[in-house]
Amino acid sequence: MKLQSLVTLALSGYATAQSRVNLTAALESENSTLSELSGLLRAQPSLLRDLGRLRNVTILAPSNDAIKDLLNDTAVARMVENDPSSVAAILQYHVLNGTYYASNITDMPAFVPTLLNNMTYANVTGGQRVEAMAMGDTVSFYSGFRQQSNVTKADLNFTGGVIHIINKVLAVPKNLSDTAIAANLSAVAGALMESKLVTNLTNEKNVTIFAPSNSAFANIGSVLSNLSESDLEGILKYHVVNNTLGYSSTLKNGSLTTSEGEKLNIVIHNGTVFVNEAKVIVPDVLIANGVVHVIDAVLNPDKPSATANPTASTQEAAFSGASSVSDIPFTSGVPENTNTAAATGLSPSTSTEGAAQATAAIALGALFGGAALVMNF
């Protein structure tokens, strides 16, 4: 279901809000699952009051287990230590604009705006998005790094809208470089650094990026080894569409205009998206300023008329005569992927993990407390 349809249903649900219980009562009715969240909110009356004043919203409420997982995540603890303002961003990202019942969400992905508008974390018009989609009886929300949070109990009404209990805290989408490294797109990360495009692309608003996989770069390694910096920049810019939030559910057969004014040809066949000769193999990786689609080939700006044949077993090569290399190009200076639990391999009794967990506990208190000072209700 397209977002426009969801919005219509959301608005229709708002009319009955006055007959619902307040937020506190709604949370307490699910005390066995939301006692951690409910207790934290009771300890912060000003924040609870602000949340209670919201209307026509959907709150994705992390369960007790989800909050405990956050407490045990040393990576989150270190993030909050380095950037205390991130706690407000995390909280805002769990509040969706509009009242969305589970029955409104279908197997067609919808990209729903949230209250996260702080440009330090989100540079997309209307607020950072969460992807909502149903698979069978499971309703899921996808956040940064395509992290999946499943709804374990849906449609808890309150005067401001509806609450869904989720089994994992949403991950606020990161910038392009951090996301590329975490998603094992190290060739993209390295190429951006080598071409000096990182800053420009990070600062752009509403971008759609078609990011070749590491294998895609390796497959044409012989060509890439001889590129000048300007040639590399030209190839990379051909993968970028500015001023367009091209989520998979909004892409259509036709063309998109790149940041350099050239055309990309989009073909959609049986739900699979092709761009020129390349196939999208991982869609809708949310980043701070837009969306990334991972593709299986590097696009060639010298072949702007290239169009996929979706029924063919292989596509025409974008770079004729290119040969593959064993080492992935552009990766020599790329930091290692550290987007894993920092506590892996540490004994729970070690002082390192204990300190990190204590920090996470402080962070969680800030998440549901001090963050109220900077929220824009």
Automatic annotation (TrEMBL):
Q: Which domain of life is it from?
A: Eukaryota
**GO terms for biological process, alphabetical:** macroautophagy
Q: Which InterPro entries match?
A: Adhesion/Biosynth-related, FAS1_dom_sf, FAS1_domain
One CC-aspect GO term:
fungal-type vacuole membrane
Q: Name one Pfam family in it.
A: Fasciclin
Q: Which PROSITE patterns match?
A: FAS1
Q: Where is the FAS1 domain?
A: 21-170, 172-299
What PANTHER family does the record point to? FI19380P1, PERIOSTIN-RELATED
Q: What is this protein called?
A: TGF beta induced ig-h3
What species was this sequence derived from?
Fusarium agapanthi
